[in-house]
Design brief:
By secondary structure, this protein is an alpha/beta fold. It has 23 helices and 33 strands. The structure holds ligand MGD (2 copies), iron/sulfur cluster (SF4) and molybdenum atom.
Length: about 750
């Protein structure tokens, strides 16, 4: 007999990373939901990692915010308040600052985890209601270097120009600085299938990660030297006559300069810079060039560097020189990170951008968006500061901040300084689902709904627009981000223009994006559901032969029979005629032409340069940072889930046995890592899988083990991405906690760490 709750689950997606795994949610009594598999969604076919599986734990009122908090003058502490009081205080804080210091003294900080509707509304709120140019978001810390390189080379930035389902069918994948096995576990299947099909996998990572263990070839360069590595490979490609001259001639520009810079990077020199032995470099070139098709995929390893844009450019050069771009089963792609890392960078919460991935400095773009918003183009402010520069300006030029969807106290580089900047603000308002370390500093904290309690779209790392659907009612004291922005806009004189219904916002976003690079105008909630997601660009008009480059995805929901001369697309249950029906969406980009003015991909002439900070006698070791499978980002959400904490209870310093020996440190001993920014302490995790000249720390925790106390905010000149992946440190044994004279306390702390 079926259980009473055996109703069909609500089909939705995970709240966390950019893979946006499909999952079913089955409501249970008491606003709780059970996660069930959703095998029909092609990307993960039912598989979930532990974070996705346990996501409902954060819905519990035990760990989340259930009512607004306002810092009282009397106690100086955050105390429960009504929504009326909280909203009035924010309106007063933002309007007062604007009145005294001007609109650019008010800042807004968003997040790549926000749905498209929220990101769009936040950008509109900043530019119209606050009139400020000072808005940016945490995606600047994530994929901005790859985005900049994409735009330069291809004239368009979509993380992956092809669906994941293409990966198993190519000949070789070079995975640069991605630890997919821990950061997107269900996606590992694509690499396993690649190998089963006879393809090869090269992983480039200073650590032999779980992902690197799957590789046919693992190169372990010194952190911060990927640019030299890519140039060395291109040098060998040229020297060994492996370039694709026809492709270079027909479909690219700028080769002569790029060729010359690569030729200046001798492989022997590259070996010295990177520490990767020359025979391995040669083997990598052979593996990459042998098959007919190949791909390069980068993630945060090579991107989170002060030369991330050039580094990605160098990998793109390698693809272009060998004809491995803009062709079936070949190309360069970036694995976007956050749940809406892709959509979050398209609809206007970025400092230089308007919806549809339009440029804020482009008069035509301003005119188009201003018309949708019903304002004069002149009223739209210009570009503002990038994320780190905005945070760094808090308390000086920027006096008040509204923050939604980020926890910079843990995740920003040089975090102690940023924490101090946040404290120096005249006014800070934070909307969050939990009392994050950043929310704890706020003057007003607003409790907002979470993924299972609201509806909205996200755009996955494939560029596939997806619908997350509400499955349960939120607790009574909690509102959606859209309701928050609507209420604040109303109080600041904008009764209209900030709807609370996500579909109404999406309909406006469609119009605002129409004709822009990221064109969503042909996408509707209904199509997303019927077609298991729609790939942008998807203009609202019948497709035309000139749409070349758009090829239809071959998953179950978007199936084009190869011999079907009508070109009909089987979309979901219905049959949509390509000749007359809606645009099918664009799973594969650039097959006929690149999105540049002349249709050619552009080489960039880049040369190696060292990291912003190199080792010296005082700071002789390199620190790199990243993730572990069981925690997500600043940990604000996942540190509140018992099962995940049991699996990953606290920070650690990963170091090589030789370095540990030299320091006289044993497994689990507290180790101090000291950089020019500060000092962090965490237990040693000794392993031969890391380079002896490098230590690694995950960045998910606040407090004394906070990795970002150490990191270097040196910015990439183009993308303004900070150098999270390399800085110089000194490592030394720290005083053991039990020498503090309070063994009980320390033991209980150790127990908490599992
Ligand atoms: N479990 C978990 N999954 C996540 C997230 C999370 O926080 N936790 N966050 C999501 C988000 S927003 C993102 S951006 C993605 C990130 O996904 P990834 O990029 O896969 O994650 P990271 O661990 O930051 O970095 C990947 C690898 O880069 C290596 N690396 C360090 N320095 C260098 C270098 O100089 N060169 C090269 N080639 N490699 C280097 C590190 O050793 C690490 O193994 O993950 C998403 N998924
Ligand atoms: N050292 C080091 N630092 C890094 C990185 C690294 O590799 N090394 N990686 C960087 C990268 S790639 C990223 S993406 C950043 C991420 O770092 P953060 O920007 O801090 O990201 P999260 O921890 O996901 O923070 C999201 C916050 O918003 C809340 N939240 C979640 N959903 C919503 C919502 O819908 N509305 C609202 N209002 N709030 C919500 C969460 O509870 C959480 O407090 O960290 C960067 N920092
Ligand atoms: S891989 Fe990413 S999207 Fe999939 S379940 Fe895990 S966190 Fe969620
Ligand atoms: Mo990210």
């Amino acid at each position: 007999m079926p259980a009473p709750n055996a109703a069909a689950p609500i089909q939705t997606h995970c709240p966390y990373c950019a893979l946006q795994c499909g999952m079913g949610l089955r409501p249970q009594p008491g606003s709780v939901v059970e996660v069930v598999e959703r095998p029909d969604f092609p990307v993960n076919r039912g598989a979930l990692c532990g974070k996705g599986r346990t996501a409902p734990a954060v819905l519990s009122s035990q760990v989340r915010l259930t009512g607004p908090l306002v810092r009282t003058h009397a106690t100086g502490r955050l105390e429960p308040a009504t929504w009326e009081e909280a909203l009035a205080r924010i309106a007063e804080g933002l309007a007062g600052t604007r009145h005294t210091y001007g609109p650019d003294a008010v800042g807004v900080f968003g997040g790549g985890g926000l749905t498209n509707e929220k990101a769009y509304t936040l950008g509109k709120f900043a530019r119209l209601v606050l009139g400020t140019s000072q808005i940016d978001y945490n995606g600047r810390f994530c994929m901005s270097s790859a985005a900049a390189a994409h735009n330069k080379a291809f004239g368009l930035d979509r993380g992956l120009p092809f669906p994941l389902e293409d990966i198993p069918r190519t000949g070789c994948v070079v995975l640069v600085g991605s630890n997919l096995a821990e950061t997107m576990p269900p996606a590992l299947r694509y690499l396993t299938e690649l190998k089963e099909n006879g393809g090869t996998l090269i992983v480039i990572d200073p650590r032999r990660t779980r992902t690197a263990e799957q590789a046919d070839l693992h190169l372990a360069p010194r952190p911060g030297t990927d640019l030299a590595l890519a140039l060395g490979m291109l040098h060998l490609v040229i020297a060994e006559g492996r370039t694709d001259e026809e492709f270079i001639r027909e479909r690219t520009s700028g080769w002569d300069e790029a060729r010359a810079t690569a030729m200046a990077h001798w492989p022997e020199h590259v070996e010295r810079i990177t520490g990767v032995p020359l025979p391995q470099l040669r083997e990598a070139v052979r593996m990459f060039c042998a098959p007919e098709a190949a791909m390069v995929l980068t993630a945060r390893g090579p991107e989170q560097q002060s030369k991330g844009t050039d580094t990605v450019g160098a990998w793109i050069n390698l693809c272009l020189a060998t004809g491995r771009a803009g062709r079936p089963l070949s190309g360069y792609g970036c694995l976007t990170g956050q749940g809406n890392g892709q959509g979050g960078r398209e609809h206007g919460q970025k400092a230089d951008q308007l919806p549809g991935y339009r440029k804020l400095t482009d008069p035509a773009a301003r005119a188009h968006v201003a018309e949708v918003w019903g304002v004069e183009p002149d009223t739209l402010p210009g570009p503002g500061r990038s994320a780190y520069e905005l945070l760094d300006a808090l308390g000086s030029e920027v006096k008040a901040l509204l923050l939604m969807g980020s926890n910079p106290v843990v995740s920003a580089p040089r975090a102690a300084h940023i924490e101090e900047r946040l404290r120096s603000l005249d006014f800070l308002a934070v909307a969050d689902v939990v009392l994050s370390e950043t929310a704890a500093l706020a003057d007003v904290v607003l409790p907002v709904t979470q993924w299972a309690e609201e509806t909205g779209t996200t755009t996955s790392l494939e560029g596939r627009v997806l619908l997350r659907r509400q499955a349960v009612s939120p607790p009574p004291g909690v509102r959606t981000d859209l309701e928050v922005l609507h209420a604040l806009a109303g109080r600041l004189g904008w009764e209209k223009g900030f709807p609370t219904d996500p579909e109404e916002v999406f309909e406006e976003l469609r119009r605002a994006s129409a004709g822009g690079p990221a064109d969503y105008s042909g996408i509707t909630y209904r199509r997303i559901v019927e077609e298991n997601g729609v790939f942008w660009p998807c203009p609202e008009r019948p497709p035309h032969p000139a749409d070349g480059g758009a090829e239809v995805c071959e998953d179950a929901s978007l199936d084009v029979p190869e011999d079907d001369p009508s070109g009909d697309v089987h979309a979901g249950a219905g049959l949509v005629s390509q000749a007359t029906g809606p645009h099918p969406g664009t799973p594969r980009l650039f097959l006929d032409r690149f999105a540049t003015d002349d249709g050619r991909a552009r080489f960039t002439a880049v040369g190696h340069r060292p990291a912003a900070e190199e080792t010296d006698a005082e700071y002789p070791v390199l620190l790199t940072t990243g993730r572990v499978v069981a925690q997500y980002q600043s940990g604000a959400q996942t540190r509140r889930v018992a099962e995940l904490n049991a699996a990953a209870p606290g920070p650690f310093v990963e170091l090589h046995p030789r370095l540990a020996d030299r320091m006289g440190v044993a497994e689990g001993d507290p180790v101090a890592v000291v950089s020019r920014r500060g000092r962090a302490v965490a237990p040693a995790r000794i392993t031969g899988t890391i380079r002896p000249d490098t230590v690694f720390m995950p960045f998910h925790w606040p407090g004394e083990g906070r990795a970002n106390t150490l990191t270097n905010p040196a910015l990439d000149p183009t993308s303004r991405m900070p150098e999270f992946k390399v800085c110089a440190v000194r490592v030394e044994p720290a005083k053991a906690p039990d020498q503090d004279g309070d063994p009980d306390r320390d033991q209980s702390r150790n127990r908490n760490r599992g």
